[in-house]
Amino acid sequence: MSLVRFLDIVTKGDDRGHLVALEYGNDIPFDIKRVYYLTDTKEGVPRGFHAHRELVQVAVCVSGRCMMKLDDGARTEDVWLDAPDKVIVIDKMIWHEMHHFSADCVLLVLASEVYDESDYIRDYKVFKGLVR
Predict the structure, then answer these.
(1) How many domains is the chain partitioned into structurally?
(2) Could you tell me which residue ranges the Sugar 3,4-ketoisomerase QdtA cupin domain spans (predicted)?
(3) What is the pLDDT of residues 66-115, one digit of tens each?
(4) Active-site choice (18, 50, 52, 100)
(5) Known catalytic membership, residue 100
């Protein structure tokens, strides 16, 4: 079973352009309590390097691209987020890192909870111990 879980997102559009809608109940598997996005990430600067005890997230590059690395403590998978309808779920207790941001990357994240520092696991050795 893959660590990468894509959401089945429908892009609507015509000669005027495209529209991608993400709806709770139809697309997003949780109540959305927080929305944030990363922009202007400098070349060669990775982000992330943490897991969450309870938080579940959905991530999509609405512009540009980045590489998402997911790790459950036993397996790792890399996936390019490089299209606005390529949407992934980052489950709780999944270590995640973002690499290789394009200059125009806007990474949008929808989260199941508000920010809570105590939910973060920022030490990979601690994460590995918890998932054993």
Answers:
(1) 1
(2) 5-130
(3) 999 999 999 999 999 999 999 999 999 999 999 999 999 999 999 999 99
(4) 50
(5) no
